[in-house]
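Ops channel
N.P.: pipeline sanity check, posting one input/output pair.
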């Protein structure tokens, strides 16, 4: 592979007028910034619809996009809503952070109004009766047909959640919870307008995202997306395909996902995601995974697979447990899955998130796939001795980061780490002043032999812990940080371009 570099910035973290980053003008300006700065990659987080906890790794669907990312300005331009209607809602008053509570309260109301006042509504008003809108309606119907495999169940699931006061599908009435034919037929008829509304939002999402991605392609910027290993228990995926997960006859999980106790957590991490029934997936020749990967490459140019080690062995915990202490390791599908996905992936790039404690078997699986793994510089100094995360041990086939979305910013990390680790890191980086740490980490990552180097935008801006994206195993203060539009200066662009040129990553 060629030596390349890029920037990690979630879509939600973009600046915008209406409370959260989206597919607005600012997304196009950021692509321009990357292109002018000699970058190849824009790495983002999963684009799925977020629910409780606001995490993009706990989405209501592995296929559906997040309606929060729909650019309201484009809906205004299309005449579906007015600027006065958009401006009457309170999306939060702090441009540096997403106020998810306020956005949840108002965003869907506004999007529903846009749907009702569009040519796609089940009963559209006379403003859209002209035949000139038939092409738009045909494109919408074509989208629904082409995505029927997942969209039909997702739209019904979403409409049902609204009808059942946002209760998880496991708490719905038994007949629809278990997808009995008469109940499915009944609710599709009763909720047909709401079902169409959710189809409308997905159509707007994908049409707008495709425009951003096409623009990035023309500018030479490639999108590196993210594929969570698991789906959420309360999701359209689990409800529509219960046979693919370890659930009982009532739809409740028998085991759930997590991580065992370690130095960071005495009781481990209880994620709560349902566990795949890999025997069933194997029986179906991994058809669901093939569809999922095809969809991922429709959205992105390259895909980072989260928690890659879980495909070799995964940690499952009885669903009755309150902690992750009493789980067991179980063998995953291993190389068989990736051999089944080979035709779907083709020559497109996959990156394996191989962080954490790795067994020889995981190393063997990674080597068998040929996928590049990840190296995070913040992990290079904790042991204060020789480490796989130190650049002198890198091979070319890897992706180096100063930190990821789960890490503190590099400035926050060096300020908060223990003094011994700080001293060792500064010696390794060849610096005497702590304030030079972030700059030294960026340069060290860029000059390494790693084919690909991705730097979080916060590190280029040398921001502290206030700009951290996520703290694992915590709720309530994650996924919120947003960047200010005024940071994308010519000076910053020139600095990134210098790094790319000096370290042969143009």
């Amino acid at each position: 592979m060629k030596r390349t570099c890029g920037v990690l910035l979630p879509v939600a973290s973009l600046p915008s007028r209406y409370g959260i980053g989206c597919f607005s003008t600012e997304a196009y300006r950021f692509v321009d910034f990357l292109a002018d700065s000699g970058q190849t990659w824009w790495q983002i987080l999963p684009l799925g619809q977020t629910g409780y906890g606001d995490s993009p790794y706990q989405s209501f669907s592995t296929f559906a996009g997040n309606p929060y990312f729909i650019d309201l300005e484009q809906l205004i331009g299309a005449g579906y809503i007015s600027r006065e209607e958009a401006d009457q809602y309170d999306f939060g008053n702090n441009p540096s952070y997403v106020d998810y509570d306020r956005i949840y309260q108002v965003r869907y109301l506004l999007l529903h109004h846009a749907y009702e006042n569009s040519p796609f509504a089940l009963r559209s008003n006379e403003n859209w009766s002209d035949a000139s809108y038939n092409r738009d309606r045909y494109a919408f119907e074509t989208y629904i047909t082409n995505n029927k495999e997942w969209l039909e169940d997702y739209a019904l699931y979403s409409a049902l959640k609204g009808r059942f006061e946002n209760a998880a599908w496991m708490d719905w009435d038994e007949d629809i919870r278990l997808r009995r034919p008469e109940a499915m037929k009944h609710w599709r008829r009763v909720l047909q307008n709401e079902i169409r509304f959710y189809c409308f939002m997905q159509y707007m999402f994908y049409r707008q995202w495709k425009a951003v991605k096409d623009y990035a392609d023309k500018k030479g910027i490639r999108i590196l997306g993210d594929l969570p290993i698991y789906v959420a228990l309360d999701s359209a995926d689990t409800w529509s395909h219960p046979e693919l997960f370890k659930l009982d006859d009532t739809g409740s999980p028998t085991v759930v996902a997590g991580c065992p106790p370690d130095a960071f957590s005495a009781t481990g991490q209880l994620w709560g995601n349902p566990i795949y029934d890999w025997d069933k997936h194997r029986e179906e020749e991994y058809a669901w995974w093939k569809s999922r990967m095809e969809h991922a490459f429709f959205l992105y140019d390259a895909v980072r697979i989260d928690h890659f080690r879980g495909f070799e062995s995964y940690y499952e915990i009885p669903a009755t447990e309150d902690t992750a202490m009493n789980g067991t390791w179980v063998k995953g599908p291993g190389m068989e899955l990736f051999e089944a996905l080979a035709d779907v992936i083709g020559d497109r790039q996959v990156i394996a998130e191989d962080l954490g404690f790795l067994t020889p078997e995981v190393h063997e699986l990674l080597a068998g796939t040929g996928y590049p793994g990840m190296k995070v510089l913040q992990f290079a100094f904790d042991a204060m001795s020789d480490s796989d995360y130190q650049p002198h041990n890198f091979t070319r086939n890897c992706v180096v980061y100063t930190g990821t979305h789960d890490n503190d910013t590099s400035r926050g990390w060096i300020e908060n780490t223990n003094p011994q680790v700080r001293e060792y890191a500064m010696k390794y980086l060849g610096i005497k002043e702590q304030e030079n740490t972030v700059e030294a980490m960026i340069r060290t990552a860029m000059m390494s032999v790693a084919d690909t180097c991705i730097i979080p935008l916060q590190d280029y801006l040398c921001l502290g812990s206030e700009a951290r994206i996520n703290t694992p195993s915590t709720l309530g203060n994650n996924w919120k940080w947003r960047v200010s539009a005024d940071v994308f200066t010519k000076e910053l662009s020139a600095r990134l371009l210098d790094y790319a040129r000096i370290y042969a990553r143009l």
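N.P.: looks fine end to end. DSSP finds 20 helices and twelve strands in the chain.
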